[in-house]
Amino acid sequence: MKTSLFAVLGAVSAASVLAEEAAPVDLPQVTVYSPRVALQEPVATFAMPVSSLRYEPLVDVQARNLAEGQADVAIRGGIFEESGFRIGAVPLYDPQTGHYFAEIPVSPSMLGAPSIITGADNASRGWNANAGSIAYGWRPIRTAGMASVSGGDYDTWRGELYQGYASDVSVLGRKLAVDASVASSQSDGSQPWGEHRFTRINARVQLANELSQSDLFFGYQHKTFGWPNLYTPFANVFETEDLKTQLLAFNHRVDLGGDDFVNVGAYYRYNKDHYVFNRADPGAHNPAFATGPAFHRTWVYGAGAEGSVTWATVRWNFAATWIDDELSSTSLIYGRYRTRSQEKLSLVPEKSWTLSSGPTLTAKAGVTYDDSNRDASSVSPVAELSLDHFASGSGLSRLYVSYARSTQTPTYTALNSNATRGLFRGNPNLQRQIARNVEIGAQAGAGPWTTTAAVFYRKDDRLVDWTYSFASTNARAANPVDIGTTGFELVTRYTTKPLDVVFGYTAMHKSADYGTAAVDASFYALNYPEQRVTLAVTGRLGGGWELRMDNEYRIQEENRLRKSGRHPLISSAGVFYSVRQVPGLQVSLEVENLWNSDFEEVPAVPAAKRQISLGAVYSW
Description:
The protein is mainly beta. The protein has a single domain (2-619), classed as TonB-dependent receptor, beta-barrel domain (Maltoporin, Chain A). It has three helices and 30 strands. The chain has helices at residues 2-18, 119-125, 412-416, and strands at residues 60-64, 70-74, 83-87, 90-92, 115-117, 132-136, 144-152, 156-171, 174-187, 196-208, 212-228, 238-257, 260-276, 294-311, 314-329, 339-354, 360-372, 378-388, 396-408, 424-425, 433-446, 449-468, 476-495, 499-513, 521-522, 529-542, 545-556, 569-578, 585-592, 611-619. The longest helix is centred in the first third of the chain and has 17 residues, at 2-18. The two termini are 37 Å apart. Residues 1-27 and 285-291 have low confidence and may be disordered.
């Protein structure tokens, strides 16, 4: 099969070389979701915010079936519950489990490219996310639209429609704009009992001018999907999730000139989860929950503000977050509480001096304050020293060193699962988790090249990990672990008219102490790549042809639960043709998991097989 796929791609490349040269053909702006990955759309379903993270150099997406079904998002070797998501001024959150953090019912057409926040920036701007955060902004609306459709193996099809309209109507000195999106997909899946049915509906109203933008958004998403051993190791069952997510969000941003700004927002999020342990025999006893299928509902109310304001030659960086949550569950009933409120405040002033040698020296130092009505409060320091604006021709643009402390609280699945029986075994006495991060980094660029690099060390205390013991093969337990992570990150980008290349490299080492807990394997904290390489290539071949390819190679830490090898090469590729006779029309042939890798991204969870789709997108 590899040979035939190479033949198809090679034939297309040869044809493009013979075609008449034309100006580079870029993707319509409405479908550019991230500049650091080559393929903007997934194969099996419509694009979601997590889609653009699949081959992101600074993010490790550990998928069960397709990433848009259920994926754990890890940053810098952290576990899925150490990675936060935010849109505008507010962090989005699911209090039941971090498995649902990426359940964000928003079309990427409405969002800007994701920004990966780590270190001191994450400690001050992030919330309940000790390893890092993925931040999005609301994209300005313009009069433009897009319709896409595709179909492929395993009876897969997907379709999406987006329309934005920027009117001439002025309200309070700002132009009124609206946009909406609807998307749907379905597939039988590449594994037995691995089918999915997804639907998403979005609508947004925006008021904007050159200095400010206000967005009011509503989104609804319904996902039904199954997978063998979706969460369980070696149980040979066909687990199923049915998720319904609603999001109502408001955000208002004002640019004050220079880099100063103020951003405020609020949101309501509702998530309903119906989990079935074994769909092949839904009436059978479920070892996870004595009541059989489990039903969970969560409500989150959040508000936040962030900004930077220069006053008296000092730039004052601030952020404030308030989160109130509630859980209703048929099974997560063994803990001490099912409602919680949490607050975080941060103030990190900074001062800059221009040195006689040329660069600018900037020092920032401040504190963050975390509080909850269920846990003790915590005060954490944040500090960074940087050199910026080096002389032109040096190639170097930034050097920095930083230290930050941050904290977070456990989710309800860890706190409220039965501690003595069942598939998931919790611990109601889990405490606030603490992380300390120190790093040194640099940024450089010359001509078509840009590079960022960082060396970091993060010490996590009482990190909540899910572990496995061969003495209790039908259970996974929430255990606190003290763990140190040493890492190196490098991202290099080369950009020219005919070619874009983004290269990423990460190396990490961990040392862990679980105390007296019986631990034979870790599902998350010790499921990380010792080394990981990513390579995204976009080749504009002329005549309207483009070839795009995302690649990932890793050397995974050994794990006694993993049945596959630990040196996988995973690739996705696509050939795209912009039809000259129909401006705005682009057709494509895409392949996911090109080499049909069987690598288990989550230990003991089978990989999705290779999948091919043929599609078209029309933009106007």
